[in-house]
Amino acid sequence: MERLKEIHSDGKEMVFLNLRDYRDDKIFFREILHHTSELLKKKGSPQLLLIDFTGIPYTHKFFEITREFISSNLDHIKAAALVGVQLEQEIDPDIVKKAADLHILFFNDLNDARNWLKQK
Predict the structure, then answer these.
(1) Measured over all CA atoms, what is the biggest interatomic distance in the chain, rounded to whole angstroms?
(2) How far apart are CA 99 and CA 71, in angstroms?
(3) Domains, the chain, ranges and CATH?
(4) CA–CA separation, 71 and 73 (whole Å)
(5) Percent of the chain whose predicted confidence (pLDDT) is above 70
(6) Do residues 56 and 23 make contact, with C-beta atoms less than 8 angstroms apart?
(7) What is the percent of the chain where pLDDT is above 90?
(8) Cα separation of 88 and 108, whole Å?
(9) What is the pLDDT at residue 94?
(10) 29-69: per-residue pLDDT in tens?
């Protein structure tokens, strides 16, 4: 299965990172985010980013890696939708608010996330 690809939805182009049912280690997770960074930078203008985390044990370590990835790519991300994030512990509400201020929202449904991105 191809984990990283560009998709088109109703005339909007998005970078889609499919980590659904991902069971690999943190090293691979960092590697796929590195490839995503390269693609975002290559595109030039800020992109819509859709990431599907459905079905994976999304620990605080994964959250920190994702946060670092997004922070280092803010100039290349117009908006990001994260689907299926079920943290083992509750996220601090300040983190959720800061993410929303950066046009990053959490969704339970892939279609809802895609529809939100299409409006950006």
Answers:
(1) 37
(2) 10
(3) 4-118 (3.30.750)
(4) 5
(5) 83
(6) yes
(7) 41
(8) 15
(9) 67
(10) 788 889 999 999 999 899 999 999 888 876 777 777 887 88
Provide the token pair at 70: 């997004």
For helices 26-43 and 60-72, what crossing angle results, to 10°? 20
What is the DSSP-derived secondary structure letter of residue 64?
Answer: H
Say how far residue 16 (Cα) sits from the centre of its chain. 8
For residue 91 the two structure tokens come to 């996220």
Instruction: Give yes or no for a contact between 7 and 16, defined as CB atoms under 8 angstroms apart.
Output: yes
Q: 93 is written with which tokens?
A: 């509400």
Q: Is 96 helix (H, G, I), strand (E, B) or coil?
A: helix
> In the structure encoding, which two tokens stand for residue 33, read together?
């985010």
Pairing assessment for the beta strands 12-18 and 4-9 based on DSSP bridges: antiparallel
Residue 99 to residue 69: CA distance in whole angstroms: 13
